[in-house]
Amino acid sequence: MPAGTGLKDATAIVGIGQTPFARHLPEDERTLACRAVIAALDDAGIAPGEVDALASYTMEETDEVELAKAVGFGDLTFFSKIGFGGGGSCATVAHLASAIACGQATVGVAWRSRKRGSGPRPWTNTAVQLPTPAQWTRPFGLLRPADEIAMLARRWLHEYGATRDHLFNVALACRNRANQNPAAVMYERPLTREMYMSSRWISEPLCLYDNCLETDGALACVVVSAERARDCRRRPVYVHSAAQGLPAQHHGMVNYWNDDPLTGPAWTAARHLWKHADFTPPDVDVAQIYDAFTPLVPLSLEGYGFCARGEGGAFTEGGALETGGRLPLNTGGGGLSEAYVHGFNLINEGVKQLRGTSTAQVPGAATCLVTAGEGVPTSALLLRN
Amino acid sequence: MLTPVTDSDGAPFWRYAARGELRVQACGACGEPRFPPRPCCPHCRSFASEWRLMSGQGRIWSWVVPHPPLLPDYAALAPYNVILVELAEAPRIRLVGNLVSAPGAALDSFPPDRIRIGARVRAVFTGDGLVQWVLERP
């Protein structure tokens, strides 16, 4: 692999797996992780003993040792855990792709298992020493990720004249797709503008429907070389481009001390992502954009270059994010309406689209952007079939 | 209520605040202010630092109004405001705080519907060393 050509189509996702998603599942995170990983390997037609690489992200309770012992992996030669929670989702695939492309491993599994629906909310844990930025925010009652993102959202709404209707457009597109997806927590539960506008506040200007679901569930995917992928059971979905992004002077979820807090990590990841791609934003057929909170979508649309800065709200108008629109969004329902499993469901949904098996299939979809959490050091993938 | 769990870099900020002074860390070599505090200057890599006295004047950059579910002490005050203030002398330094009706007043003492982005505010200090903000022209 000549230096500088990057990872372009050198590896592919050949298996995906998931557990049911629900507010409460009886099994523990480790068991759910095993189920998702075994399902992904079955989907790929690859034996667990062939797995030699693992990747997940921080806040994952099931560690590599436990997974390897339970599922019966072979000798592992690569394992990686990406920092900053939800910003790590796409980087799991990126790390495996890098390891496989340069010969450190041959079969990689990425996974995420979470019991956020029935377990405690991370922000309520005040017993441990908080990371450095917390001393500057939490005593004043800025306690939760929702509060931190709401602060950016208020400024963004103010600076660009965007409205709550723009945020509703995001929530609605995700809910409409979840209504087509029997696996989604919000299947057959439609959302209306009236429900949105009259719902309770969580952190003004964000209301209930601007926030992701609290979900139990696990997902996994399998990455191999493009050469190996040709012999697998499923149509390969190639990792066309991958990037992480941690901007200069960034400060975690609270980006307020950056020179320009409205250009978050998405902007950094995007520059690298597109530099190594054969296509550009208008060529993306379908997008899976991390949606822990609705404002992350317009901010990401700006960061990944689908529109100019400040135009992310206007971009959502006229059904642009719906099926048949300019950029169909989060076609499984996303974190807002399918399940919030730290964004891993967005990766698997991207694979389903490019296999042609999504419950909200975009006809002929050949390219997909998947992103991880914006606002935190992040990551993104361009997938193609 | 949560009290600041300081680290060694941040501790001077809170010591000055307990004396009623708003000071931010600045480089002892090139003079650039920086926030949050950290061991060395990202501009010139000097490990020398000073704590520069600020006027306490600033403007509201953004604000939110949290509602439950919240930690119990905060839920009891909700809805309350949290503001982000850009300092007059160093606009890129933004401090999270609360807009209150008077020094020492509770987080919910100022009506949220009167908060505006760009409003001029001034730092005041509680007896236990927290920085609060009041409107410059109430």
Key terms:
heterodimer; A: 385 residues; alpha/beta; nine-stranded mixed beta sheet; two-stranded antiparallel ribbon; 11 strands; B: 138 residues; mainly beta; OB fold (Dihydrolipoamide Acetyltransferase, E2P); five-stranded antiparallel beta sheet; two-stranded antiparallel sheet; 2 helices; 7 strands; 9% helix
What does this structure look like?
Chain A: Residues 259-377 form the Thiolase C-terminal domain. Chain A: Pfam families: Thiolase_C_1 (PF22691). Chain A: This is Lipid-transfer protein. Chain A: It comes from Streptomyces asoensis. Chain B: It comes from Streptomyces asoensis. The complex is a heterodimer of chains A (385) and B (138). Chain A contains twelve helices and eleven strands. Chain A has helices at residues 29-44, 64-71, 89-101, 145-160, 164-178, 193-197, 226-229, 265-275, 296-303, 312-315, 334-337, 344-355, and strands spanning 11-18, 53-57, 78-82, 107-115, 201-204, 206-207, 216-225, 237-245, 286-288, 367-371, 378-384. Chain A has a nine-stranded mixed β-sheet. In chain A, strands 5-6 form a two-stranded antiparallel ribbon. With 138 residues, chain B is mainly beta. Helices cover 9% and strands 30% of the residues of chain B. Chain B has two helices and seven strands. In chain B, the strands form two sheets. Chain B has a five-stranded antiparallel β-sheet, with no helix packed on it. The two termini of chain B are 27 Å apart. The A-B interface holds A 121, 124, 126, 129-130, 132-144, 146-147, 150-152, 154-155, 158, 200-205, 249, 251, 254, 256-257, 259 and B 1-7, 9-10, 14, 35-36, 42, 61-67, 69-71, 74, 77, 79-80, 82, 84, 92-98, 107, 112, 117, 130. Strand 5 of chain A pairs antiparallel with strand 3 (57-66) of chain B.
